Amino acid sequence: MSNREQTLSIIKPDAVERNLDNEIKEIFKSNGFKIINEKKIKIEKSEAEQFYKVHETKPFYNDLCAYLSSGPIVVMILEKENSVIANRELMGATNPKDAAEGTIRKKYGISIDKNSVHGSDSIENAKIEIDFFFKD
Ligand code: UDP
Ligand code: MG
Fold first, then answer.
1. CATH code of 106's domain
2. Would you call 118 a catalytic residue per the annotation?
3. 106 lies in a domain?
4. Which DSSP state fits 114?
5. CB 79 within 8 A of CB 126
6. 118 lines ligand 1 (CB under 6 A)
7. Is residue 62 included in any domain, yes or no?
8. Which domain covers residue 24, as residue numbers?
9. Taking the C-alpha atoms of 42, 44, 46 and 51 in order, what is their torsion angle to the nearest 10 degrees?
10. Which residues are close to ligand 2, an ion, with C-beta < 5 A?
11. Each residue of 47-87: pLDDT tens digit?
12. pTM, full prediction
């Protein structure tokens, strides 16, 4: 039974700034993810605020939106069986300090805010996030 699904991945400014985008893309590919679409962009703070609206009441919301819009990012549609969960596993815990060995955040994350990658947290949110960046 195939359960191929899509998820949205973002390589965040801290990683793009260190030229890690190709290396991180290779990690996705070698873990069986197909990159269906990708683009390197820089977003406005207002767009980051819309993207992270679910966090608008959190104390870190303003800094988070300033950060995501602070430099180029790479947004990608990834496809694989159970890709939402598979991507969350490959990314590791939100705080790189807590991320398991072998995860992207363990390897590249600098801090809880500069944690190198974003990944959708549910199939429903994956659809919303993919539309946010790729529906024209
Ligand atoms: N974040 C932060 N401080 C916190 C919690 C989260 O700066 O105390 C940032 C972090 O970059 C994280 C993003 O907000 O990736 C979204 O938080 P979420 O809880 O959704 O974590 P994720 O789904 O990215 O693991
Ligand atoms: Mg999240």
1. 3.30.70.141
2. yes
3. yes
4. -
5. no
6. yes
7. no
8. 4-42+72-134
9. 0
10. 121
11. 999 999 999 999 999 999 999 999 999 999 999 999 999 99
12. 0.97
